[in-house]
UniProtKB/TrEMBL annotation:
Entry's EC annotation: 3.1.-.-
Name of this protein: Very short patch repair endonuclease
Source organism of this protein record: Zobellella taiwanensis
EC top class named in words: hydrolase
A Pfam entry, by short name: Vsr
Similarity comment text for this entry: Belongs to the vsr family.
Amino acid sequence: MVDVVDKKTRSRMMSGIQGKNTGPEMLLRHYLHARGFRYRLHVANLPGKPDLVLPKYRLCIFVHGCFWHRHPECRYATTPATNRDFWLKKLTDNRERDERSRLQLQELGWRVFEIWECGLRKSAGASLDWLPEQIIGECESLSWPDYVQKG
């Protein structure tokens, strides 16, 4: 399959992709802040540099893009047809790094939540009403919108 844009345009598009302060992340931050939760952002001395850290609850939250972090069975977790081997390796490495970070954080006594971009796209924050209870609760690890408790 041939790319629909030229290399220069594709390069510009890819360089514009943010790693921090993404739309889904900002939506979650506004939701939590409005409900009185305080957090630190992108804490560099924790494995994986979690997007949000709520020290009071020993909780790290990662806001994952479905494409970049390979959200299982998600329509947004596609693999590009061009340069397929490169993308498969890159995206698999991302997923493996996420898993290592999650396990390291848990070994350090942190709880870890993954909030996926697709869930935030659908909800526009409305269906996050389950989240405060989980933050305050004892759930060690979950993935949403799958709402799968892990580990």
